[in-house]
Structure formats: structure tokens, C-alpha cells
Amino acid sequence: MVKYHQLYINGQWQSPNSAETIAVINPANGELCAESVSANFADVDAAVLAAKSAFTAWSLTTAAQRSQLINAIADEMENRRDDFTDAISITMGCPKHISQDIQVQGAIDSFRAFAELTGYVEQTSTENGVIQGHAPVGVCVLINPWNYPLSQLVGKLGPALATGCTVVAKPAEQTPLQDLILAEIFHKVAAPAGVFNVITGIGSEIGEHLCSHPDVDMVSFTGSTAAGIKVAQSAAGSVKRVCQELGGKSPYIITEGADLAAAVRYGVEDVMLNSGQTCSALTRMLVPQSCYQQAIEIAKSVAEENVVGDPKSSNVTMGPLSSALQQKRVLDYINIGIKEGATVVTGGVDLPADLQAGAYVMPTIFANVTNDMTIAQEEIFGPVLCIIPYIEIDEAIEIANDTVFGLSSGVFAEDTNSALKIAQKIRAGQCYIQGAYFNTHAPFGGFKQSGNGREWGVEGLREFIEVQAFIIE
Ligand code: NAD
Description:
- The protein is 39% helix and 20% strand.
- The protein is built from 15 helices and 22 strands.
- The chain has a 7-stranded mixed sheet with strand order 15-16-17-14-13-19-20, with helices on both faces. The protein has a 5-stranded parallel sheet with strand order 10-9-8-11-12, sandwiched between helices.
- Helix 2 packs antiparallel against helix 4 and helix 4 runs parallel beside helix 5.
- The protein is globular.
- Nicotinamide-adenine-dinucleotide binds next to helix 7 and helix 8.
């Protein structure tokens, strides 16, 4: 078992003010796998003070110095790849081989890409008697969930470092380890003290203090819509910038002319990835009535290809959910779907005997779903796909947009151009065309209650930048 009884503040491992700890449970077997500090307000204050004290010097570094630090950290992350992989797999249940490729290597590569963007903050333009420039926003609090814990961290940390901001990171209670390993890396590469501070703690207890702190300039939050609203309310009193990356219930339209087998396979695999715990998962599959039965059969057989089990086994494609609580939430939703009249095509609430000890849920497909059902309106955040029939394409677009969310979407049509015409009518921050995959060059973020932020690439960088005008004429 790994124990972290200190916090990384001001370039040092410091004993906390709090005597409380957080038990981290391995969701594959319900056993204790790690312990972290449950930080209190005094710990938060110390971390914010460190970030504030470090800001002036760090914000005045050159683009080359910032690139050098990002690359040094990325190099060391490569050296610690196995530690990250194990940490994520054991704390949130992602199968190890998937954790290594998607959760860890993908995150390292995307973090390193920010080394190429450090010059952006220094760019200016002059027009109409105005020099327009940029400044780093300041002290940034980064709050993350547990589903892609390293990727979400570097999606915020990369642009923060690249622009000259300093950081207080708060990982989810369930997955503190990758932030703490990263702190060890900052220490090893001798990063300037206070640029990166880590507070492990319970969001509902310290969140308000952290987000309302007068010395924090920005909160970048990824998590549930409910917590995102609380964060914005806490931050409002001091008028700080809040970037929210929240939940989703994303539609996926398959048209009459699409290659049905390829389109359905893509949709099912998308939803089942990471045991269905992906905010942008295309959880509402909209299929023409004319091929509805066929689509259900394909979906069933693709879902049943999954090997559900111990995340340490190399043949397992789906581990447990991240916690027993998350398992209960998902099973409750499956029961609601059944009560509301949807048909379970595969999966459901029963578990094989050998999976009873962990937080497992079998890949579940619901047919005969209407868009007004709870399972089609609320984010389930588990391996549950709803298949909804439509007759005309306009009806499909209407169903797609009939949601409070707007994070992602997908269209699979006969060709890219036809798909794009439909995609442009969907109110969502992203649309995956013809089976495309996650791409960190694409700005990522939501419409409506899915949030107001954008992450990755230049748009992600701009979140951490203030625009500054110098009027010379
Ligand atoms: P959550 O909202 O419960 O927790 C997320 C983080 O917020 C945790 O670190 C938690 O400690 C903290 N937190 C909780 N209450 C807080 C408060 N009042 N103030 C400050 N911080 C607080 O979410 P979760 O269950 O960990 O994650 C699942 C959710 O995250 C899903 O809704 C999913 O869609 C969403 N998500 C969104 C994106 C995106 O980019 N849009 C990405 C991944 C996950």
C-alpha cells in the first residue's frame, strides 16, 4: 500500500496541518490500496500562498525556460510511466494495458506538446494605435475528477506552465496518486518552488475555501455539473475566472446510408471504453427505424466481446467502475431504465459470481428507449448505451439536441460531407465524424450545462491568458 502523509507545497514535502487521512480503495477488490492527506483550510492557505509567492518570478521567465521545464518534466514522466500506469489502474480500475496507452502515454505526449506553445503568451499585435498583448492569468486552482486523472491534470497544467501561471492542483479523492507522483517529478527536476503545489482533500469540504480564496485568480474545474455549479458560486464573490468542463449525454446519429456494422461497432466501443466513464461518451445512439433491429443485434454482439474482470489481466478489456458508490449509481440507473420500460438487450444488474467482490457493471445495452426517459436524459457515467429509433433525419437532430448537455456528439453517414451537414446542426462542442477518435488538436469543451471552458491546443492555452491592451495613440 502506498502512503502519502505529506503535501507538496512550495517545492517541499510538508507535513500537513490536518491530521485526517483519506483511504483510497482499489475498486477491483474493495481493499485499501493507498492513503493520502485530507487537507484542511490551513493547508489550502499554505498552498495558495506558495503559488502566489512564486507567480512573479515564474511569470517573468522566457518562453525557452518554460519549454525547458515542460520537456524536463515530460522526460521524467516517461521514466515513471510504469508508476503512473499502476497508480491509475489500481485506484480507478482501468485495465493496465489500457491505462498505459490511453491514460498515461497519451497524457505524457499531450503534456509535452505544450512546450511548443510557450511563445504564444509573448505574442503581440499592433493596430489602430493599440498594442495588444497577453499576460498569464495568475494563481490557478486545478480541480479534477477520477476518470482520466493524469490526462485531465496535464490538460490544465500544460497550458498553465506554458503561459507562466502557478498552480494548486487538487485531484479527486479516489485518485490522488498521479498528482503526487508528478510532485515528485517536479522535485526531481528542481522546478522553481511554488510553481506546482498539490493539495489532496475532499472537494465538498475544502472546495469552497479553495475556490473563494482571494489570492486565487482562476479555477479550472473538470467534474460533475452539480459540483461545477458550486465551484462557480464559490468563485463568484471574488470575480475570478472559472472554466468548467462538466458532464454530458452525447448523441450519436447513424444515418440510413452509413455502413451500419462499422458505425454501430464504433459507437458501442466508444461507450464501453474506460468502463463507460468518459464524459464525452456517445451514450445516445440514434438509429433509423428501418435498421433498428439490425443495429441492436450488432450492438449486442460487440458489447459481449468485452472481457470484464481484473484490471491486472492482459486480456481484460473492461475493469470495474471507479468505486462501489459509482457502481451503485450506475446499477440504480439500470433499474430505472427497466422500470421506465426500456429493454435490456445485454448486461443489466446481475453480475457473474467471480466479479462480486469488485465494483463491476456488465456492458449494458438498452433498446426501446425514448429520449424523455431518465436513462436518456441523465448522465449515467457507466457502461450503458441507449439505442433510440428515429424516422426522419430532422427528428434525429431534434432528439440529439433535446438535452441539457452539449459536450460531444457523433455522426456516421454515407460520407464525410453528408455527416458534416448534420453535425453542424448539433449543439455540442465537438462532433466525431465517421468514427474519428479523440484528438488533442481539437478544442474540447461543452455547450449548455456541459460547461464553458475549452481545453487542449491554443484554445486551451487562452483559458490561462488575460488580454492586455497598451494604447499608444
Ligand atoms: P465530481 O464533480 O464529484 O468531482 C470532481 C472533482 O471536484 C473532485 O476533485 C472533487 O473532490 C471536486 N469537488 C467536489 N465538490 C466540490 C466543491 N463543492 N468545490 C470544489 N471541488 C469539488 O465528479 P466525479 O464524480 O469525480 O467525476 C465525474 C464527472 O466528471 C462526470 O459528470 C463527468 O462527465 C465529468 N467529467 C467531465 C469532463 C469534461 O472534460 N467535460 C471530463 C471528465 C469528467
